Amino acid sequence: MITSNNKNLKIIPLGGLGEIGKNMMAIEYDGQILIIDAGIAFPSEIKPVSSFGVSDTSYLNDRKNMILGVLITHGHDDHIGGLPHFLNEYNVPVYSSRLTREFIKFKLGNKNKVDLRTINFYESYSLGCFEFEFFPVCHSIPDAAGITIKSPVGSLVHTGDFKFDDNPTLGNPVDLEYLSNLSSNTNLILCSDSTYAEKAGFTDSEATLEEELNKIISQSEGRVLIATFSSLLSRIQQIITISSAIGRKVSVVGRSMNRNLKVALDLGYVTDPQSTVIPLRDSKKLPNHKVLLITTGAQGETNSAMGLISRGEHSDVSIKNGDTIVISSSPIPGNEIKYSHMINNLFRQGGQVIYQTISLVHVHGHGSREDLKRMIELVKPRYFIPIHGETRHLVAHADIAEKNGVNRKNIFMIEDGETVEFTGSEAILGSKVHSGTIYINSSGTPKPQ
Ligand SMILES: [Zn+2]
Q1: What range does the domain containing 40 cover?
Q2: Rounded to the nearest whole angstrom, what is the distance from the C-alpha of residue 161 to the centroid of ligand 1?
Q3: Ligand 1 centroid to 195 CA: how many Å?
């Protein structure tokens, strides 16, 4: 067992740097470690069939006693999907916001002996030598967070996945004053989401979809079927609100969508004051122009609701003449072919299909160049580490940081396994640690490669 009294703050990315997905970062100081996120890899990263990829945590194996806890930024699979496996190896408390905790519980299933702790935003918590605080950010799932961590030699701001949305459909805009107050921390390190660092401008607000969705839902003469992400609750809220105003009823098709909407309604993240949401069986008694179905399968996943509907294989729902089908998503890397097949199949079934390429029916949840610039200008970090992205995204983000006031020698373009050490007076590249991907089969056991 390794013991360490190293008084440098070490940043150790174990996933999500040099790749999209599988996010995990270890923060180490004086023999104590915090973990941020424990995600799975996106499909394009997964080579063996029927398995999923998680971060190789060999580095932590002989440091088990140093790990104090896992801090989870939000409930997407590339941030929580690896938790069941991680917690099998390291039984430590997991800190998250309230709705994220519910998504974690779904992920953990019957795994009972897990210490899940719910944080309040802007409240300070202590673990060993670290103090940390979650702050809310806008993203494509409610209750998403950035995290500030203070250590004896410097402070770190980890943005999680974020965009600036001054008019969010759910929740509040990011607190700009909070972010600018962070700049008073000495030796401040900013680790910021790079996913859309190549895209010019600001990312559109969720509210920009309102007009197009309203037009489609109001003007369609038959049923409307909308596929989107089951965690994109702001989109689901928009659909319920628009439908409610014009007297359409909404039914949900797909297990994860039903489960997520139920918990969101129970906790008050989504509201349905007019009882617009009705069971699918009741919608069958209504005329077509009174029916809207929200479905899973926005990526064309084979066994998802819309995937099955598109091939005429769903047991409860088939495409009728006059149906309008909206694919309210864009394909995640690796899903492009499935996504395209689904759209072609839906046309073959006789539906009118509306999707992102031909109409504004989706905005994404990551900040574009102007959002990223705004984050850097507000936080004014001394040091900068671009995170969450392939190499090209990290390079583009490093460039934004340099153009917006961060000294080039303080920008660290690192990938998984490469480390940075902060002494309090300077930052240097540290020694490389082992990293990679482990493939887990559906029973949760690692597969040899
Ligand atoms: Zn996310």
Answers
A1: 9-201+364-447
A2: 5
A3: 10
Ligand 1 centre distance from Cα of residue 414 (Å): 21
SS3 readout for the chain: CCCCCCCCEEEEEEECECECECCEEEEEECCEEEEECCCEECHHHCCCCCEEEEECCHHHHCCHHHEEEEECCCCCHHHHCCHHHHHHHCCCCEEECHHHHHHHHHHHCCCCCCCEEECCCCCEEEECCEEEEEEECECCCCCCEEEEEEECCEEEEECCCCECCCCCCCCCCCCHHHHHHHCCCCCEEEEEECCCCCCCCCCCCHHHHHHHHHHHHHHCCCCEEEECCCCCHHHHHHHHHHHHHHCCEEEEECHHHHHHHHHHHHHCCCCCCCCCECCHHHHCCCCHHHEEEEECCCCCCCCCHHHHHHCCCCCCCCCCCCCEEEECCCCCCCCHHHHHHHHHHHHHCCCEEEECCCCCCCCCCCCCHHHHHHHHHHHCCCEEEEECECHHHHHHHHHHHHHCCCCHHHECCCCCCCCEEECCCCEEECCCCCCCEEEEECCCCEECC
* Residues 40 and 178 both lie in one domain: yes
Per residue of the chain (449 residues), give pLDDT as tens. 454 557 899 999 999 999 989 999 999 999 999 999 999 997 654 455 567 899 999 999 989 999 999 999 999 999 999 999 999 999 999 999 999 999 999 999 877 789 999 999 999 999 999 999 999 999 999 999 999 999 999 999 999 999 999 989 888 899 999 999 999 988 899 999 999 999 999 999 998 999 999 999 999 999 999 999 999 999 999 999 999 999 999 999 999 999 999 999 999 999 999 999 999 999 999 999 999 999 999 999 999 999 999 999 999 999 999 999 999 998 887 788 999 999 999 999 998 999 988 888 999 899 999 999 999 999 999 999 999 999 999 999 999 999 999 999 999 999 999 999 999 889 999 999 999 999 887 655 554 33
Please indicate, yes or no, whether residues 72 and 151 belong to a single structural domain of this protein: yes
What's the number of domains the chain is made of? Answer: 2
Task: Assess if residue 62 is contained within a domain.
Answer: yes
Distance 312 CA to ligand 1 centre (A): 31
pTM of the model: 0.94
